[in-house]
Write a structure and sequence with these properties.
This protein has six helices and ten strands, in the order ααββαβββαβββαβαβ. It is of the alpha/beta class. It has one domain: Rossmann fold (3-Layer(aba) Sandwich), CATH 3.40.50. The strands form two sheets. It has an eight-stranded mixed β-sheet, sandwiched between helices. Strands 1-9 form a two-stranded antiparallel ribbon. A hairpin with a 2-residue loop joins β3 and β4. The N and C termini lie far apart (51 Å).
Length: 198
């Protein structure tokens, strides 16, 4: 009887640890899903957190980086809707051992060397040029305009009941030779395309 109670106590403690770890692991996603309710600034703080997490679940192909010490480069085009939130979120962080560098660019042609490129709502006119320029290249294209993912972007943000969600275009990712983790796909609102077998 005593042994049974001790086992139950140990199991209960283990369960609490698991819950705490899960909360810590998912808080970036869960909090992100609801923080958009506080307005535009919070929306972009949420999106900045998502952008950081996206890179943790994406594998770039060999050759996407010059060498093992090259940073992971995040880029934005045109007006920066994050207003410093992206820089603040990524400051001092790394992804898979790579330091992170943030660049704010004016036009798509300046985006050589970017690994993750964010195209804001205000840059709709540049989307066709961006999609054409980076078609088949190992760049994670993230946007927030309507149908960004369905039109060929890799990940598109969507607002649903004031919550930030995202769609993944798996076909676009595969054409860019980007491997997206099943964990990230499981969190997506919509996944466009089906994974290749093998």
């Amino acid at each position: 009887m005593q042994g049974t109670l001790e086992r139950e106590r140990r199991m209960s403690k283990a369960a609490r640890v698991v819950v705490v770890l899960l909360v810590a692991w998912w808080q970036g996603w869960g909090a992100a899903a609801i923080a958009a309710e506080n307005g535009s600034s919070s929306e972009y703080a949420v999106k900045a957190a998502f952008l950081y997490h996206f890179a943790q679940f994406v594998e770039w192909p060999e050759g996407a980086f010059r060498d093992a010490n090259s940073p992971l480069v995040y880029c934005t085009i045109g007006f920066d809707p994050f207003e410093g939130a992206l820089d603040a979120t990524l400051k001092g962080k790394s992804v898979n051992g790579r330091a992170i560098e943030v660049r704010h660019l004016k036009q798509a042609p300046e985006a050589q060397g970017c690994h993750l490129l964010f195209v804001g709502e205000g840059q709709k006119r540049q989307i066709p040029a961006v999609l054409a320029q980076f078609h088949g290249t190992p760049v994670l294209l993230v946007g927030e305009s309507e149908k960004f993912a369905t039109e060929g972007g890799t990940i598109g943000f969507v607002l649903e009941e004031n919550k930030v969600r995202f769609e993944v275009n798996l076909e676009a990712a595969e054409k860019s030779r980007l491997k997206i983790s099943a964990k990230l796909l499981a969190l997506a609102k919509t996944v466009i395309g089906t994974p290749k077998r093998g």
